[in-house]
Amino acid sequence: MESPFLGAPESSSVANAIFAVLGFAYLFPYHAMIQPVDYWHHLFPDVNMDVLISLHYTIMAVTMLCLLVCVGGVLRYTRRIVSGLVAQVLVLGLIPAAALLDQSTWRYMSILSSSVAIAIATSFLDSSVFGLASLFPQGALEHVQFGIGLSGLFAAILRVVSKACFTATMVETATMIYFFAGAVVVVGVFVAYLILLRLPVTRHCMHTTKQSVFEVRLLRKIWRSEGLVMLTYATSFTVFPGAISTIPSFQSPWLIDSAWWQLILLTAFATMDLVGRYAARWRFGLAAHSVWRVSMRLLLVPLILCSVKGVWLTHDAISIMLVVLFAFSNGYCGTLTVVFVNDCVDASELSASGMLSSLSINLGLALGAAVGFGLSRLLGF
Q1: Better pLDDT: 218 or 63
Q2: Domain end: 211, 227, 260, which one?
């Protein structure tokens, strides 16, 4: 007989919406840190901070997730999610204080330390969000992925609004308000999680399915699928955000001087990434055994690098088209590869596989960020 809890569509719908909110919090602090390109250039004119922030963030996130996967089990959802959200709020609220430091070196260390702190906080959050969503009926994981895309778009829009409301000489004020607003948004995510815990479908899903902790045999079962998850995100972070944010405007150089061109590209990426995640509900014949085809998006990487260096592809329309295609494929392929992992495991392994998917995502992010850092040094962007 079908459970009465699972038979309440309104409860499941609210749960899915809240999982989208939790997915939003998963990468929102990171997106918030890479968006204010003009502010980082104001503080550090000769440094590509997006590349360095990504590198420090992803390395620490992978380190923490490895520890959590190996020794942390899979059942302490509330403790990890709440502690992660609280830490995110505190760090986002403190980031603007870096501008008050007198020496550039201290500012530099403060920003990179903030990226490390956010990575640690987010590790506690995402180590549980994917595992918890895996326990719910089909749709919860897709909503987590949709929320991840939504966080990028929201951070982009928030930065555009904060920049537009102030003059170019008030970049520090605009950025302070931007980060404070981001901290308030994460507080809203905390409230949403408390609501999730009170839903009947949550009590049913969390307490009726016995969940196993991580075992090596599970990794043997899903390593190919997790490898595709890692490849998808590694491909993306090879050129995002560092290379994409340095693509020049060939037809409108004034957009670069005002830092609007970088925001246009990052906003276009965030928008199409979200569209791709939404479109993942239509699989177009892709299944767990055929999703390897997503690796073809690797072909876009050298094209984007050509645009960065002004080789052959020297038109703004081409640059935007490449960013749009790359972002859409990131959202679409990133969502499907994670969802297909669940097709390979038993019900008792869902939580552990969700945690491994989170680790695979962050391993991919770290690998991509490392390659992107190397390319920035090699190609000089």
Answers
A1: 63
A2: 211
- Which 3-state string (H, E, C) describes 204-215? HHHHHCCCCCCC
Domain endpoint, select from 211, 234, 261: 211
pLDDT given for residue 2 in this prediction: 41
Please indicate, yes or no, whether residues 173 and 262 belong to a single structural domain of this protein. no
- Domain harbouring 23, CATH code: 1.20.1250.20
Given a contact cutoff of 8 angstroms between Cβ atoms, the answer to whether 121 and 88 are in contact is yes
Question: Looking at the structure, do residues 262 and 327 belong to the same domain, yes or no?
Answer: yes
CA–CA dist 75, 251 (Å, integer):
54
5 lies in some domain: no
Distance CA 91, CA 45 (A): 24
d(CA 1, CA 146): 31
Alpha-carbon distance values, 48 to 5, 41, 155, 241, 243 (Å): 51, 8, 19, 10, 10
In this structure, are 299 and 181 located in the same domain? no
Entry pTM: 0.79
pLDDT for 328-360, tens place per residue?
999 998 888 888 887 777 666 666 777 778 788
* Window from 5-9, 52-56, 77-81, 237-241 with minimum mean pLDDT: 5-9
3-state secondary structure of 36: coil
Q: Are residues 60 and 44 in the same domain?
A: yes
The model's pLDDT over 33-79, given as tens digits with 9 standing for 90+, comes to 988 888 888 888 888 888 889 889 989 988 888 887 676 554 577 88
User: Looking at this protein, which amino acid is placed at residue 64?
Assistant: M
CA distance 155 to 244: 16
Residues 307 and 322 sit within 8 Å (Cβ to Cβ): yes
199 vs 20, 24, 80, 151, CA distance in Å? Answer: 15, 20, 19, 24
Number of domains in the chain: 2
Q: Which domain holds residue 136?
A: 11-211
Same domain, 162 and 271: no
45 by DSSP, 3-state: which? coil
Residue 205 and residue 239 in one domain: no
d(CA 325, CA 208): 42
Residue with tokens 């000489």: 169
